[in-house]
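COMPLEX REQUEST
Ligand: ribose-5-phosphate
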Amino acid sequence: MIITSCGNSVSIAKSLARKLHAKYCHLDISAFPDGDIYLKFNSSLKGQQVVIVHSFQPHPDMSLFDVIWAAETAKDLGAKKVILIAPYLAYMRQDKRFNPGEAVSSKIMAKLLNKSIDKIITIDPHLHRYKSLKDIFTISSIKLTANNVIADYIQRNIKNPVIIGPDNESYQWAESIAKNIKVQSTVLEKTRFSSHHVSVKIINPIPLKGQNVVIVDDIISTGHTMAEAAKKAHKQGAKSITAVCVHGLFAGDALEHLAKAGVSKVVSTNTIKHKTNGIDVTSLLVSELKKRK
Ligand code: R5P
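STATUS: Structure written out below.
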């Protein structure tokens, strides 16, 4: 097995290679003076299983392009199988045509990957209107979840926590994590008016006064979802508010926004490299690859 990365997840790729006693291959990706992509593998790939580890953030569009280029080149060089590990898979939130004329980006992304790779492994993809990755991927697809590593982090770092999911879909993380560490949880109801305007309502109240509240979601993008949930917890008298996410996109001034809403600490997993990374997902990927090595 040869493990490589197109640039966004080099440290996870190297750590996977070390833990699996596989070879890490550096990939040169740059541009010709006119902007055309230049890509070169630095190992022989003939007959090998090639694993490309690459998160689709930052630069989701270039990431898609780089992964396709790397996969096609690997096959052209004789690789027997190309597996993509996308710790964060972009484009999944545009899973329907919300307004006439819009692109359904998740379908286009999957269609392109279906043609170039043999298998995809990803962590907590945003499955809202799709039931499973199989709704868009025709290749073999594996969905892993960071729930256990997040639960472990909360248990080790936050005393007597209560968990909040900021919207309906977040029950998949909030309820499962709360059950795992045997604490109380509630899921709020969110209405989104635009990218930067959401409101949340407490539907099933739990005592938050004097509690260490942990708000858990799959994605923090603009931070507005978390911020609105944090404001509610703050109003109810929470002692501390920690925002935990699987994928920290932190678009624009998301972190400032969260601080203003009363969030004391923000923690993300390392599916996307960021200064808030406090939870490592490598063990999930090691176990998955070991099953099939
Ligand atoms: C959407 O349904 C996701 O689960 C997140 O709640 C959402 O992507 C967060 O976005 P933002 O931080 O921009 O509110």
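REMARKS: The two ends are 8 Å apart (CA to CA). Residues 3 and 24 are 5 Å apart (CA to CA).
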